[in-house]
Amino acid sequence: MEVKFFLKDKVKDTTSVRAVIRHKGQRYQIAVGETVITKYWNENKYRCRTPREYPEASHINTRLDDWADLIEEAINSFGLIIPTQLMVKNKIDEMLRNRNIEAGGVIENEDEQYLVSFAIKYRAESNKSYNTKKSYQTTINKLIEFEKLFKTKLRFIDIDINFYNKFNNWLLNSTFTKGEDEIHYTKNYIGTMFKNISKFMAASQGKVHEFTGYKDAEFKVEAEETDAIYLTQEEIQKIYDLEITEELLKKNGYQNKNLKTTIKSLNEERDRFLFGCFTALRHSDYSRLDSLHFKDNIIRIWTVKKDKKVFIPMHYQLRELLKRRNNILPAPISDQKHNKQIKNIGKLAGINEEVILTKTRGGKRIETVKFKYEFITSHTARRSGATNMYLAGVDLKFIQDILGHSKIEQTISYIKVSAEDNAKRLVAHPYFSGKDKNPDTK
To answer: End-to-end alpha-carbon separation of the chain, Å?
Structure first.
């Protein structure tokens, strides 16, 4: 096989060059994108002559040599198969594209080289949950902010350990405003950034690039176990028994205006929160419970996040709560509004012991001391439900199924039980108490 180059139009002063190849009885013609001055073309050598007055000629010849090697490699890649003209063209285009990508050069659809462009498209086409897509968008926003600050445009070739260190250090030193405070990002927040970036890279690898820098052992998705509270059964009982009156509200600083509306709103959110405590469902699930979900004292519901149907026995106080409400469930509300109200409910219920929680922010362990009610969120209901089920002796595998955890270790770490609580739970166990032993075995 020999790759020869010919001028497309000898009559013109300048003309393009075509490669012509004969192979196994087939003739192939390939446009190579080179243009030469006609009078400097050497027809016998299929290359440009290189006089002093045409310095570009040597560079053209070098590129033609590269083209000859590329075309020969492309055709040989078919082995015993005799390819068509289109097969050869497509193979050459593929090889060119891969070479450009590997070198970080420009490809035909240049936008496909850029991480953010791909991530935006990936998010738009994803069928993941609302919260997952929201997380993708947060990562995209941070990448765009990083690009603007460092005057760069991240390509797939750039996502390696050097990018990791630079992006990680930037996030560790960045802050956001909450109220009047400047707060550093948590380890879990930063870990989610790299988790999503790795997901974008993995989804695009093999389609628009072949870079694996994100698979470096040092390209870590760091996380820490969440330091969070749970409410004991006694504290949940306080919320359950709470009678919200105008007098109680005034005593806690509420103004006289619209107190009746406030009472109604707080009662709704108190009951909604209790639904979460008695089921261990997420807010996205317990806030949309409907009478159709209750049958034969069992709750049957498809969970939003895991898209899985769970079956939960109805807690006796949940049945009482439904009866108290005439089987009318609270209307849906946003997580943000719900969180604000349940903190107020916790305060009104007297859940006010001081609690210390720690989180890693900006690479440092930060302790936060607040009243316990200030740490209550919609997720506290789910964690409290799971923890109290465990302390009551409910099978751990059943709790795992409700929570939707793929591994039992996730459930164990999720349940907030101190070593002392666990010991108290086991005091009545036959092994420790000696009760329920078969008299014949004494």
So the answer is: 93
